[in-house]
Amino acid sequence: MGGFSRIRDSRSEEVRTAKNVFYNGTNESLNIYDGTDIFYYNDTALASGGRPEATQDQRRIESFFGRINYDYAGKYLLNASVRRDATSQVSTDRYKTFPAVSIGWVVSKEGFMSGQNVFNLLKFRASYGELGNPNVTRKYNQTVTVIGGGAYYGNNGYPASTIDEVIDPSIGWETTVGTDFGVEMAFLNNDLKVEGTYFNKESKDVVYGIFQGTISGASNPRNFITNAYSFRNKGFEVSLNYNKNVNENVKLGFYGNFTSLKNEITDVFGGSFLETGASLFGNSIVRLQTGQAVGSYYGYDVAGVFQTDAEAAASGQTGAKAGWFKFADQDGNGVIDTRDKTFLGSPIPKGTYGFGFTLNVHSIDFGIDFQGVFGNKIYNYNREQRYGNESWDLDMYNNRWRGAGTSNTNSMITSNQSIILPNSYFVEDGSYFRIRNIQVGYNLPSVIAQSLSVKKLRIYLSAQNPWTSFKYNGFSPEIMNQDRVQMGIDNNIYPISAIYTMGMNLTF
Q1: What digits encode the pLDDT tens for the residues 101-124?
Q2: Can you give the residue ranges of every domain in the chain?
């Protein structure tokens, strides 16, 4: 099979103005997708005192593709494909080729397996593939902010514009290269099925915004959009499914899965590390560094709390006082400085798992589903920001340091910036165990259903996310942050809701 496709998104533009509000010092953004069009949205209309705002977006993708499938006697399987893609989202090497191949061997169909009665299925498989992300820069806009009185000539202020973010003119494809090896097995007349897979995937030239400083001329601190880093995910996953019809009236099932994952950065733009992500008082919480996991927190390791001013003065920690966090002297030189920062944990779980159970007895059905993760850390950015602003959580207030001997874990509460530098106190265990779903249902007797002019009538009760066990001091340990570098930073992340439902299913 082969084919060709071409996609061009419709170009949308919108222009708005608001009179008599431009010269009050307010900022307004002009979202410019393509930097070459930057002068199309010029400031000539500003003489009338209006505040213009405009947006545009355009994307083009072109693809050639082909695929071959081969199946010999249901025993030897081959699937090979190749894509030749081009995208307007990158500046250099817009055309790129992405091959993929997978093979399978169904051992259980071989003649030498005909006499065995253990395996209903035994299959080995392997695959290799490359894939490109054609939307690498779509979530970023090259943005121009128009500022009233932003430029001065003599004693007069005039409207001016500044670029908020700069997209690297040499930005290229973001690609993923993956290899996996797996086995599939079935036993007990196909009632029990087991799968296992080892995987190794590398994402190369990931697009992200990095700190470039004001030297770029842009106003956004994370202002340079480029191919910032590459990383590798490798590990294994196992799944098990068991379904059994005990008799005509009783059916039961069990399923489970487990994934072990190691994430590691393999390359970083411009050197061995980048400090990025959320920051507090100019101090980045995340460091991207080769050999570490994506999104790893970087800061000071807290070794306790100073109990007296004398202890603090002798520590080598500049400006420290009684009640402040005591930072560990990592290099042992007697002075606490940026060289004492260290990695404090990763937001990526070392393991994820899930399992569930189903049971049908006569007209009653029941199901329950569990989920959990372990080995990951959460950065409690909410708690860090509460220092000094009188919106503390209850644990923070009740257990704060209030004098010598009151706490060697929790500090005093103060707005002093030195005490709330990124540190291990705000890094918490992100492991959790959750009941994801419970449902019980009942199929009413057919005579009742037919009296209501339906074939079947089932009523049910369900609870989604009704209970979660975790140690984290926030609302929820599941941080749904779509930014992959800041995926574990809890910055006002809305918690997952528990949902309780009563309903019915009708079959006509």
Answers
A1: 999 999 999 999 998 999 999 999
A2: 2-245
